[in-house]
Known about the structure:
The chain is mainly alpha-helical. It is 70% helix and 9% strand.
Amino acid sequence: xxxxxxxxxxxxxxxxxxxxxxxxxxxxxxxxxxxxxxxxxxxxxxxxxxxxxxxxxxxxxxxxxxxxxxxxxxxxxxxxxxxxxxxxxxxxxxxxxxxxxxxxxxxxxxxxxxxxxxxxxxxxxxxxxxxxxxxxxxxxxxxxxxxxxxxxxxxxxxxxxxxxxxxxxxxxxx
Length: 174
């Protein structure tokens, strides 16, 4: 079931987004806003994919009542409904913008439980083996954070600085 796989991948991403602030401490408002925005857009997508899987399973006669119970009593499909922001005067006399978010961890847990309920209904699929296969495919494909790309970016940055210095010296001489 492709929809369950997609929902699983999106759940992993939302988990990373929700935990990023906890692990790293205070963050810039712009970074937090990006994480909030991505999580807010992703959670409804998760439920859409799970709903598609639910409908496919129900069409074959599967008992989707556990899923329906989890989704039916869900307050919202968003990652958070408690986002606060404002400004205050900082210690240096400048206005500082602050933003806080309280993630809907209960909604996230329900999405995970709903995914697991659907997985149980598809006992013919070895979900662990499928995830291992996907992880292996991703590892084989490589990553943009590979050291080759990082070193290439460093070289490009050094080249740009060198060009800027040459240009600056040339404009001062003329």
